[in-house]
Amino acid sequence: MEIFALNEGSYSVDSSKKFIPFDPQVHNFRERPGSLFIHINPFLVKTSTDLILFDAGLGYKDTRDELYVHQHIRNAGFDPDEVTLVLMSHLHYDHSGGLVVERNGKLEPSFPQATHVIQAGEWDFALAGRSSSYHKDIFEALDGSVDIHFVENSGELKPGIQYELSGGHCPYHQVFWINDPDSHRDKLQKCFFGGDELPEPEQLIRKFIAKYDYDGRKSLQLREEYGKKAAAEGYTCLFYHAKSSPIGNVSYANEQFTIMPV
Which of the residues in the chain have pLDDT under 50? Predict the structure, then answer.
């Protein structure tokens, strides 16, 4: 198994839910009062059978009018059309914007050859358009244009890929456990993607209830469960909103978590 963090940089977001690029070398955080500062890291995982994208980033483009997520996939040595699975933890804009690309004034799927795995309840909620955290036009562009595999509750997508309806960050949030025993012995065999329920390594170390979670207390409990399982069973964790160490191995001793960057 090979894992690539597709870093899209840092952004500030305020009550308007607009994501504005933030470079600490250039910008002053004091000029953006009331903003939350976040970092965006979709992940590309090459297993023995699939090329997997975990969440899709914001869908922002570089100066050549190309999606960052497409360019980063190419930098990793692959073509975006080689992606076979797009596994979505949830559909908030900062995770789903890269599912589509604007060409000639029209939104088109960014990964037309891939199967998109989405919780059915999350899809229905996103299409309902009742929250500004979701951009309905993204899902309308995907509907009928790509293969969407809707799942419910928890289960096995295919041998080695488990999805788990977690419902902490939003009601239909899901996480993924990947176990690829056919990986070469000198490579990683297991990884865990916790979306926004385990978005940063620091959240394993600092116990707190986040106001941005649908069920903050449940998310707190889930983070500890994820960390303990990852440590006990040797899963490498992928941290979508990590600032500097998006890929890490977890250890747990004396009721303390330690994360070693990979």
Answer: none
What are the residue ranges spanned by the domains of the chain?
Answer: 2-8+40-261
Distance (Å, whole) CA 148 – CA 114 = 9
Helix (H, G, I), strand (E, B) or coil at 190: strand
DSSP 24-50: TTT--GGGSTT-EEEEE--EEEE-SS-
The rounded distance, in Å, linking the Cα atoms of 189 and 168 is 27
d(CA 181, CA 155): 19
pLDDT at 186: 58
Q: Which CATH superfamily is domain 2-8+40-261 in?
A: Ribonuclease Z/Hydroxyacylglutathione hydrolase-like (3.60.15.10)
Q: Are 199 and 239 in contact (CB under 8 A)?
A: yes
Lookup: tokens for 186: 């000198």
